Amino acid sequence: MKCDFTRWLPAIAKTPHQWLSTEPNRKLVLSVAGVAAIGGLALAPTAAAASVTSGPHAGAVSAIELATGKQAADPDPEPAPDSEPAPTESTADPDRSPEAAASDTDGTNSPTREQLIPYGVQGAQSYIQVDDAQRTNAKEIIEVAKATGVGERGAVIGVATALQESKLYNLGHLGSYNDHDSQGLFQQRPSTGWGTPAQITDPQYAATAFFEALKNVNGWQELPLTTAAQTVQVSAYPFHYAQWEEQAAELVAELW
Q1: How many Cα neighbours within 13 Å face the side chain of 64?
Q2: 42: phi > 0 → left, psi -120 to 50 → alpha, else beta; which?
Q3: % helix, strand, coil for the chain, step of 5
Q4: Secondary-structure class of domain 30-70+115-255 per CATH
Q5: Complete DSSP assignment for 148-161
Q6: Taking the CB of residue 70, how many other CB atoms lie within 10 A of it?
Q7: What is the C-alpha separation between 140 and 204, in angstroms, rounded?
Q8: For the chain, which residues make up each domain, given as ranges?
Q9: Among candidate residues 171, 170, 155, 177, the one with its CA nearest the CA of residue 244
Q10: How far apart are CA 116 and CA 160, in angstroms?
Q11: Residue 4: which residues within 8 A CB-CB, separation 6 or more?
């Protein structure tokens, strides 16, 4: 999260307390020493982008204002037909196909490449070796993608974003290496309203915050990965997310 938009991002979700994990010791936050121990990988220039000075992307402003209730709802929505079933507590994405929804529940079907990368990758792709900690964090992102209803494609966007932002390490405050106060898998910033340091370094909280914002980006399912990620992240390097789409898809296919 790379710019000052405190004025319109007091909270990413309408009810963040509902998904804030309270389990003790469920996360490992890497300190400066921990990052040094992994050979400086997360300190590469692509791990934390510089500040944006031109202001947030209009799509991000609209999405977060809607999520936080600052954007007015449609004053004249179409009435629901009488035959429409009553709302349920399901978080499933209504735009997803029955086949894709079935793959979530039966536990037997891996996502197809068409589900993971429906529009093909953009540009040259990057790969890194992932260790157990990174794989665990990717799995957490995938589980939250299922819980929030963004499905396989959302999971790819989330994992690719975390690969770019933190190389899938749950980063604590890195002192002089920090981009402002960015922390966690998605390098979210407490000062811009993503949550407290403890919250944004909780992988479940951080991933839920990311996906709740993504869901409020109009037509995110049809956007190129880098556009969808950038609309939420507002990075100074908006095209860097694209390079991780292939590896993110492989991780989602493996861990789904």
Answers
A1: 24
A2: alpha
A3: 50, 0, 50
A4: mainly alpha
A5: HT-HHHHHHHHHHH
A6: 13
A7: 7
A8: 30-70+115-255
A9: 155
A10: 11
A11: 191, 192
23 alpha carbon, distance to own chain's centre = 21
Segment 118-147, tens digit of pLDDT: 999 999 999 999 999 999 999 999 999 999
Structure token digits, residue 178: 């920090």
A 10 A CB-CB count for 8 gives 16
Phi, psi of 72 (to 5 degrees): -65, 140
| Distances from the Cα of 78 to the Cα of 75, 99, 219, angstroms | 10, 28, 19
- As a whole number of Å, the end-to-end CA separation of the chain is 27
Classify 2 as helix, strand or coil: coil
- Here the tokens at position 182 are 């960015």
State the Cα–Cα distance between residues 152 and 113, nearest whole angstrom. 10
Q: Which amino acid is at 177?
A: Y
Per-residue pLDDT of 139-172, as tens digits, reads: 999 999 999 999 999 999 999 999 999 999 998 8
* 237 Rama class: left (phi>0) / alpha (psi -120 to 50) / beta: beta
